[in-house]
Amino acid sequence: MSTNSPVSVPPLDDLDEPRLRELGAKVDAIVDPNGHKHWRALNDASPTRQVGEVVWYLVRHGLTARSPQSSGLLRTLSENVRHAATAAEIVDALRGWPDDMTTLDRGHARDYSQLTPKVLLDIDELLVELYLRDRDALMAAREGWGEHLRLAADFVRRRAGEAIDAAAAEAIFDHLVVAHGTGYGIASNHDVPRIVDGARVEARLADTDAVRELALLFGSEEAWAEGLEAVVRPRVKAFRESADSLAPRILDGLRRAELGDVVYLFGDGWWGPGTVLKVLDVRDDAPEDLLAAAATLRSEGTAPFRVDIDLIDDEKGKPKLPDLDAVDAGGGDDDEYDDDDEGYSDDDYDDYDDYDDYDDDGGDEDEEDEEECFDAEPTSDRVRCLAEALTIVAVERSVSAGRSIPDEADAAFDLERVVDSDPSYIARIRGAIASLGRDRARAIVRRILAKPYYFGKAVILCDVCGDAAVTGEILDRVDAGDYPIEAGLLGACGLAVVEEAAARAAAQQEPKRAHAYREGILYVLARASAEGVAWGDALDRHIDLTAVYFAYGGAKVEGVLAMLDRLPLARYAAVLETNLPRCAEEPWRLARCLRADTPAPLIAAVFRAVVARPEAIESGSLGDRLRALGEGIVAPLAAAIGDQQLPGTFMRELERALDSDVYAALSAALSRPVETKLEELRRLAASLEGPKARIYLLSRSASGDAGGIARAGGAPIGVPADALPRFREEPMKHVLTLDLRQLPELRAQRPDAAALALFLPDPDEGRHHRRGALVWIEEGALADAPEGGAAIEVEPVDVPLAIFAGRCEGDLARVRSLVYGWSGYVGGEPLWLQEPEDEPDFLLQFDESLVDINLGDCGVMYVFDGAITWQCH
C-alpha cells in the first residue's frame, strides 16, 4: 500500500496502532548487520507470532522499510519473504532502500557481498520472489527504481532466460569479475537461483566454477579470463597478502598472463610453494623461459619483472568507520558501550553517515602519499623459493620432452622453504633432483649440507642419490647440529632409509633425537602403505607406538593409524604385542591403535595395561577409535577392571570414548557401581586435610520443568511485574532463582529473605550483564510458584579451602577441577577463569550449562552481593 495511505492500521494481537508505528520506526533505526536485534525486537513485540509474519505486517501497512539503516532488516525480510509476503508488499518493501546500499550500517555495508554494484545480496531473494509471483509488477516497479536496483532486477531477469540490455549485461559481468577476483569474493555458498519455466531452480555460488558459469550468462569465457587478468595485474599488494586463496580463484586470468607478470605478482608474498606449482602447471611456459626467469630472480630479484602499470590498493582511501561490535546500535535505547560510565551514543558517530566526505587515504589530509615499492631482493627466501618452483617445472617439462637440463639450473635448489606440511612440493623437488642424475644430485646435497642453516632440509634427499654414503653424510650433519632431525622431512624418503634411521635412533644419547628418528620411520612406512608399497615383516619391529605424536592429530596421526589398519591381522597383532612393554608408561597409546578385528585376548591385554596405570588417563587420552570395537570391548574391558575402584577421570574418559549403549553395558557388567562425579568429589574432598568450606553445587535437573522455588529461566517468583528491576526503562529478564531454605549459610546473611533472584538486561546478547540486579524475596511472596523454567538441584559438599588459593596439585587439583567444572556453586570463593577481580562478598558462580544465557566462549558468571561480573576465553 502507499506510504501516504490515510487508512488506520488494524491492531496485531495486543499491538495497537501507536505501538505498531513505534515498532516499525524502531526496526528501521536498528543497526545490526546480522539481523539479530531486528529479530529480537520483532519477537519480543509479538512472541506468539512468527517474526516473518510481524515484519511483513509492518511492511503491509507502510510502517517499516521506510528509512532503514541496516542490512539486518533486509536479511529479516528476505529470509521470510517466501512465506509471508505478496508481490505488492515486496514492491513496497523495496521502496525505502537507498539505491547505493553500501551506505547502510554506517558505511560498513560497502564490504558486504554484492552480486550487482551497490546492491546487497539479500535484495536478490526479494527480486526473485517478485519475479516468480508477478513479473509484470517487477517490470512496472523497475521503471521507478534507481540505476543500481534496476541492474539488480536485470540480473534476475537474465537468470530467468530473458535477454537484457547489452550495457546492463556488461556492467553485471564486470562486477562479477571484479568481486570474484579482488578477494571480496562471492564464491561463498551464496544462493543465486535460476528461474526455468517460471519455477525456481536452486543454485549456489559454491566455488569458482559456479561463479564462472553465472558470469558466462553475461559475457564470454575469453572476457572472463581477460577480466581476471586485468583485475589482478595492478593489485600486487592484495595478491601477495592472500595468494594462496586468490590464485585458485583467478587461475583463468593467471593462465593467460605474461610469465613476468605472474612472477612479479607472487614476488615475496605470503604463499605456499604448492600454490605456485598449481599456477605454473596450468600454463604452457617453455622450460627455457622458466629457467631464465629463475636465473633472473636469483641474481636480481623481482625488479626486472615489475608490472608497468599504475598499481591499485583497494584498502587505500577507505574511511575510518566506527566499530559496530563496540557500539550497541539498538534503535535509540541501547546505544551505549557496555561500560555505561562512558556514555557514548550514536550521536558521536554522525560524521560517519556519509563516508564519501573523507579524504582518499582515510587519514590526515596533510599526509603525503608515498608510492609503495613491491620489488623484492634476490636474498629473500620467498624469492629464492619462487625460483626453485620455476626450476622444478622446467626440469619436469624438459625431462618429459627428452631435453637436457643445463647445469646452472642446479643452483636454484636450496630447499629453504621446504616444510613437511606440503608433501606434494617435497615429492616434486625430490623427483626433479633425482632426474638430474646421481652426480648432480650428490653435488646439490653437499652444497646444502655446507650451509650454516637449513642444512637439515637435505634429509628429504637421503635416498635420492641411491648412495648409502650420501645418506650417511646427511644424517651425520644433522646429528652434529643443534636440533633433532625433522621427522616429517625424513618421512618423505623411501623404505631404504628405515634400517639406517632405526640404527641412528638406537645410537642417540638424547631422548628427543631418538624419538624424532622413530617418529620419522612411522611416516616413511605410512606413506609407503598409502602408496601401496609393500615391505617385509622384518621392518615391522621398527613400528614404535611411543613415537606416534597423537597431540598433532590430523593427517600425520591418521596416516600412521591407516598404515596399522592395512597390515595383515597377524602382523598387526604382532606389532601391538611388541609395543606392550614399550608403552608401559603410557598404555593408552595401545588403546588408541586398536582396530575392529583385534582379537579379544589382545584387547584384554591392552586394557590390563591401561587399567594398571589409570593416573595416565586424561581427557581425550583414549581417542575415538574404541567405538569401532562395539560391544566386543565390554567383556575384556570389564575383566580388566574387575573390582578396582578407578578414578572418576578414568571412567569419564571411557564414557566419552565409547558409544552410550556400550558404556551402559560396561557399567552393568562391572562388579561394583561406577563412581559418579559427585561421589568422586566427596571422596577426594574428605580424604584431604586442612580447613574446609561448605559449598552448594548447582545443577540443572534432568527431571523437567521446575515445580519448586529453585529454577533457571522461566517466570520470576515473588516479584510482581511492576516491581521487576529495570534497565533503561525496560524490565530485566529473570535468569535464576535460588531457594535460600536450601542454603542456610546464605540465608543467615539475610534472615528476612527466603529466595534470591538474578535478573539481567539482555541475557541473550550479554552486552550489559554487569548492570544486572539481585532481588531478595520474602517468604510470604513465594506462596504461588508459577510453572516454567528448569529445576535447579542443590548438593552440599565440604571442600578444602586450599582449592580457592591458586595452583593445586594431585587430588587437590582434581577437586578444584571438579568444582570449577560444575554447572555452578554457592559459597566458598570464586574460581576465576581469567585474572581475579577485586570484589567482596562472593555469593555464587555458574556457566551456561546451568542457565541458557550468553556468556561468550566457555564463560562463567560471578555474582557478588553488590556486583555482577563475568569472564570468558
Question: Which SSEs are present, and which pair or pack?
Answer:
Elements: H1 17-29, H2 36-45, H3 51-60, H4 71-79, H5 81-84, H6 87-94, H7 123-133, H8 135-142, H9 147-159, H10 166-181, E1 190-191, E2 194-196, E3 199-201, E4 204-205, H11 208-215, H12 221-232, H13 236-241, H14 243-249, H15 251-256, H16 259-266, H17 273-281, H18 287-300, H19 381-400, H20 423-434, H21 438-449, H22 468-479, H23 487-490, H24 498-507, H25 511-530, H26 554-566, H27 569-582, H28 588-591, H29 600-612, H30 634-641, H31 648-657, H32 660-669, H33 677-687, E5 692-705, E6 711-712, E7 726-727, E8 730-731, E9 733-739, H34 744-749, E10 755-760, E11 773-777, E12 790-800, H35 810-821, E13 824-826, E14 842-847, E15 860-864, E16 867-871
Helix pairs in contact: 4-7, 6-7, 7-8, 7-9, 9-10, 10-12, 14-17, 17-19, 18-19, 19-20, 21-22, 24-25, 25-26, 27-29, 29-30, 30-32, 33-35
Features of this protein?
single chain, 873 residues, alpha+beta, 10-stranded antiparallel beta sheet, two-stranded antiparallel sheet, 35 helices
Describe the protein.
- The chain is of the alpha+beta class and 873 residues long.
- The protein contains 35 helices and 16 strands.
- The longest helix is centred in the middle third of the chain and has 20 residues, at 381-400.
- It starts with 16 loop residues before the first helix and ends with a strand.
- Residues 327-370 have low confidence and may be disordered.
